[in-house]
Task: structure prediction
Amino acid sequence: MTLQQQALDVIESLPDDKLSQVIQFAEYLAEKNRIVISAQSEPANEDGYVRKPGVLKKKMVMSEDFDETPECFKEYM
Result:
């Protein structure tokens, strides 16, 4: 029996809530693998960290009033 067949046998026996966790973990591993493969061509810094530009793209959101001075600082201006 191959690893894929073993994985399918286990997955088929799981309830839906656990199956969604398996899918999320599999997606995490696939993304991690893509990062490692692409990082192999990039040099690491002295800590061994390889910078991957765009990892946090669309993960951070700035508020609409970002450029406005907060009320608590207006008296100092």
Remarks:
- Residues 3-76 form one domain.
- The chain has one domain: 3-76.
